[in-house]
Design brief:
Number of strands: 7
Strand order of the largest sheet: 3-2-5-6-7
Number of helices: 2
Shape: globular
Helix content: under 10%
Structural class: mainly beta
Order of helices and strands: EEHEEHEEE
Largest sheet: 5 strands, antiparallel
Radius of gyration: 15 Å
Length: about 120
């Protein structure tokens, strides 16, 4: 009968109960960095970037603040600020720990990898 979660940390913004067709976020999307972080350094300290998406589930923005207070810093959001695109942990918690909602491998090529797939050892 499905999951009935009172506190849905994972969300499906385009969800239409009963029909999953057409509910995925697909294609290249712009996002913006909202704070200084190692991931932003990997993107050349640019304020905005573009990556490809192919997913249905994402972080419910209602919980972004409390998750950030617990150490999961959301460092990038969609251009309109409604979708959490990337997170990291502070250097005090972990020397290099990032997670992204998009798929960096979709834009990675042998001689031009997507920034999150680069060697981050120079940032530590």
């Amino acid at each position: 009968s499905g999951i009935n979660a009172e506190y849905g940390v994972i969300d499906m913004p385009e969800h239409n109960k009963g029909e999953l067709g057409g509910t995925m976020l697909l294609g290249a999307r712009n996002f913006k960095f909202v704070m200084e972080c190692k991931l932003k350094q990997l993107y050349g300290n640019e304020e905005h970037a573009k990556e490809r998406h192919r997913h249905r589930y994402e972080v419910n923005p209602k919980y972004a603040k409390s998750l950030t207070e617990a150490g999961m810093r959301f460092v990038a959001t969609s251009e309109d600020g409604t979708r959490m695109e990337a997170f990291d942990m502070s250097e005090e918690d972990h020397p290099y720990f990032v997670g992204v909602q998009y798929h960096p491998e979709y834009l990675t090529r042998p001689l031009t990898p997507s920034p999150p797939t680069w060697d981050s050892s120079s940032l530590v």
